[in-house]
Amino acid sequence: MRFLKFLLLFVSLNAFAQQGGMWIPSLLEGMNENEMTSLGSKLTAKDIYDVNNSCLKDAIGHFNGGCTSEVISPKGLILTNHHCGFSQIQSHSSLENDYLKHGFWAKNFQEELPNNGLFIEFIVSIHDVTNDVLAAINDNMIEKEKQSVIDKTSNGILKTWPKETWQDAKIKSFYKGNQYFLFVTERFDDIRLVGAPPTSIGKFGSDTDNWVFPRHTGDFALFRIYADANNRPAKYSENNKPYTPKHYLPISLDGVEEGDFTMVFGFPGTTNEYLPAVAIEHITEAYNPTNIAIREAALKVIDEKMKANDEVRIKYASKQARIANAWKKWIGENLGIEKSNAVEKRRAFEATFTKALKEKGLEKKYGDILPEFDRLYKEFEPVNIKRRNFIEIFLTTNELMQMTFRTYQIVEAINNNPNVFEPAKADLTARLKGIHKNYNVDVDRGVFNSVMPLYTNHVDASIYDKTAFTDLDSALKLLEGTPEDVLKNINNDAAYQYAKPLIDEFFNVIDKEFQQKNEPITALQTRYMTALMKALPNARYFPDANSTLRVTYGQVRGYSPRDAVYYNHVSYLDGVIEKYIPEDYEFDVPQKLRELYAAKDYGQYADTNGKVPVCFLGTNHTTGGNSGSPAIDAHGNLVGLNFDRVWEGTMSDMNYDPEICRNIMVDVRYILFIIDKYAGAKHLIDEMELVHPKR
Description:
Elements: H1 31-38, H2 45-48, E1 60-63, E2 67-71, E3 77-80, H3 86-91, H4 99-102, E4 104-105, E5 113-114, E6 120-128, H5 130-133, H6 143-160, E7 167-174, E8 179-188, E9 190-196, H7 199-202, H8 206-209, E10 221-227, E11 241-242, E12 251-252, E13 261-266, H9 277-308, H10 310-339, H11 342-359, H12 363-366, H13 369-397, H14 399-416, H15 421-436, H16 441-451, H17 463-466, H18 472-477, H19 483-491, H20 494-535, E14 550-555, E15 559-562, E16 565-567, E17 570-572, H21 573-579, H22 591-599, E18 613-618, E19 630-632, E20 638-645, E21 663-667, H23 668-678, H24 682-687, E22 690-691
């Protein structure tokens, strides 16, 4: 365990040392700083992370816990992706004010729209607390004992850690439980919608272009942080003022060229770069295909209904995007793993690891790891697939089953403790109202008929004609009366009667077996990480993503996805017009944008060749959670907005390959062009600091 003292001091560089990796911003001095300089960066480690002075990390916010955002003006103006703010844009939309279709632009502070539940969190400081967290751990403990001690110790550290009253703190695990960092944070809850382009710009290309290049999507939206009179976090109030940030990003008008340095700063969600080959095989050959099939069946129904009805289109826009995103990502992930020969390469690496164990006399201690992985995954595969298929149907694609699932949880809570009846009833009421806000029974029935046969042979769509759950008023009536009345009403409902045996099986059989068989795999993965670093101490190890603040650096680069095909590093507005299909839900182009293109009315936002750049590619190692992350140039200026990866490179969560892994960014000049020339929101441009670092 004490090998951690040199964990972050590896000095050996491999062929791709300058590409790949999601690095902790407080630990950039030394190797990372030197690598960034060699790639063209003019930034120091303290420019990026500094506790005592304003720095880049002060402009980077965790957007609603799932995306990234950045401050781009001294008045707390926030930039993130259109798809990150999609549910907020949708929630403010109606047939009368269709902000999804027409866009939204507040003309002043008073017109900016508040968003209940939306928050942005900033990192104040980062601290290594590994020695304290692991002080009481020993090798004789089983995994549950270790985790219990770690949780107890971590809670004790958090209780006494010095911070301001409006700040919070959390401890996160790194290197599969071999290292721990504490993050002091500030969370702002008054976040208001400022501007969003129409979906025909913000989601241009929709499912067809998702995860692919060339891309022509203006995937951005603007929000603003509001704070109290002392510039501190506060709940929504009309008295709150625009937040004055510690730092905001100047915006470069000079654009990017191939080979330019790029740094993506954000909150990547989850990666698993150190999985054994057998795990990658399991995911791509067994686990992914079944889930792809379920989502594909659901999307076929939803897409047809959305095209036929505007009301359905508005209601299901966010759901459809969420379902489609992972569906296509998993397909690309499988293709990338196959194309890059990832499994074969991982097995070759494992042979090197096994040889190193023998050479260092570690075979007796760690030689069982790889054979044990093979045995455990063989047992784990069926239950892992069954469990995920259940989640896909009952929590992701079908809303009637989701309502029965949530109801089941409440019923179980009441059965176990009658005293929780009132709060449980309130919780279920809120969930039902949330689902019904954007619910259409015909769509949901179609989804049920399509996805349920992929899970069970017992499919009974007649429950839609008998259940109370498909209508909000009748669903809420189930919850009227005494606890006994409510339980009786629920248990007599046709949909609940249908779903209950399946949910019972999930909780009492499937999930229990999953936890039982996943626990030793998790423990073995921790041992494997330890063994790797001891057997191959000169290899390069970066911590997997875990939704904490990270830096990934690289360069602007095109790529060749297959034989005789090469994608340039940049796409242009010309490509938007080339793809234009009138009235098509994916490729329609607003008339105003077509007029600007025809007149070549580009203002100061054209490239040196007179074209408006839309998107560009980089070698930055990104994943989910990096959506909305700023692309920062060598001088610390904003040049783009990260929003996607190329299809062939989505496997970078398990296997980063610098030959084909690319992240896709909206060129900031396209964003400014849309705000200024298309939307006429020049007042927002005037807030920003526009610079020319290359002149």
